[in-house]
Structure formats: C-alpha cells, structure tokens
Amino acid sequence: MADNESLAAAVPGWWQQVLTTQRREARRVLAELLATRGMMPLLMKARNGGQWTPAEKEEVLGHLRRMAHLSPYLVALVMPGSVLLLPAYAWWLDRRRLRRDD
C-alpha cells in the first residue's frame, strides 16, 4: 500500500485523474459484462426448440439494452486506428458524464 501512495504522490494530478477515470470505466464495463452472463443459455433455449416466457423475453431485452450501452466502448476498441480516436472518445465520455451530473 505504501508503494501505491508514493507512486500516487509522484504522478501529476491530471494523470491521476486519467487513471482514476480509466479504472472507474473499466469497473463499469466489467460489471455490465458480468451482468450479461446468463444471456447465452437464455438465447440457446429458443435455438434448441424451447419457448421463452414473457419474463424471459424481458430478460433478453434487458441484456440487449445493457449491451447496447457498451457498444461505444466496444466499437472504439475494435475499429482500425482506434488508438488515434482515444482522445476524442475520452472527451466525449467526459462530456456525457458531466451532462448526467454523476
């Protein structure tokens, strides 16, 4: 723990903010991905000839909505040349966060 504190003191304030933001967003993406873990068996139920109940249909829609919120992250990571777009992407994410008053 002392190493982390000494490292934090040596890093400029703006870089600490970048690292904090990156960690927060990484935790958010991971939490969203973990929340969609039950989607595959649910999708395979229909593929294997089963019928979805209304509750299961709502669950599938919830998973799809969750994944749609992650799509900007995934597109930015998969696109060719995405490293060049990271500064603009970070600006856009920060603008969204400020608008929501988080």
What's the SSE pattern?
A: HHHHH
- Report the total helices: 5
Number of strands: 0
Unreliable stretches covering 5 or more consecutive residues:
none
In terms of DSSP E residues, the strand content is under 5%
Which bin fits the share of residues in helices?
Answer: over 70%
What can you tell me about this protein's structure?
By secondary structure, this protein is mainly alpha-helical. It has one domain (2-100). The chain has five helices and no strands. It has helices spanning 2-10, 13-35, 39-47, 54-78, 82-100. Helix 2 packs antiparallel against helix 4 and helix 4 (54-78) crosses helix 5. The longest helix has 25 residues, at 54-78. The radius of gyration is 19 Å and the shape is elongated.
Identify the notable features of this structure and list them briefly.
102 residues, mainly alpha, 0% strand, elongated
Question: Concise description?
Answer:
By secondary structure, the chain is an all-alpha fold.
Q: What is the element layout, followed by pairings?
A:
Layout: H1 2-10, H2 13-35, H3 39-47, H4 54-78, H5 82-100
Helix pairs in contact: 2-4, 4-5
